[in-house]
Amino acid sequence: MDKLDRFDRNILTILAENGRITITELAKKVGLSKTPCQIRMRRLEEGGFIRGYGAILDPEKLGEGHIAFVQVSLSDTRSEALNAFNEATRHIREIEQCHMIASNFDYLLKIRTRDMSNYRKVLGEKISALPYVSHTSTFVVMESVKDRG
């Protein structure tokens, strides 16, 4: 796919805010007729710019309002160890995000749980048991000021 123009970027911005907008309304907001807007949207989907559509859930109402960020240091950072760690994190529901970091630690995890007690259990039984984990440091969120989720 060629470079994105202003219409493509506007479509992406609007869909990121409201994925349930009708094609008619989207076309009107970006200044195109319905068919060209649909074609652009399909091309953005096929090009991987739009990975999917879904509901944004409220973690607080679902009883998962406790957020902690965890710095993880591994005992081995060769490809085999990194791949094993990466794969294992995908199977832990409480890990909302996992990022490999260029720092004095290896990964930064965003963990979402019910409360501190539940977090301690997840840390002790799941995160610390991940392959090659040698050390963790936890930072507890006191207030979420901006969160795109």
Describe this structure in words.
The longest helix has 13 residues. It is elongated and about 55 Å long. α1 packs across α3 and α2 crosses α3. The mean pLDDT is 95. Helices cover 38% and strands 20% of the residues. It has 5 helices and 4 strands. Strands 2-3-1-4 form a 4-stranded antiparallel beta sheet. It has 2 domains: 41 residues, Winged helix-like DNA-binding domain superfamily/Winged helix DNA-binding domain (Arc Repressor Mutant, subunit A), CATH 1.10.10.10; 75 residues, Alpha-Beta Plaits (2-Layer Sandwich). The protein is of the alpha+beta class and 149 residues long. β2 and β3 form a beta hairpin. One of its GO terms (cellular component) is cytosol. It comes from Cohaesibacter marisflavi. Keywords: Activator, DNA-binding, Transcription, Transcription regulation.
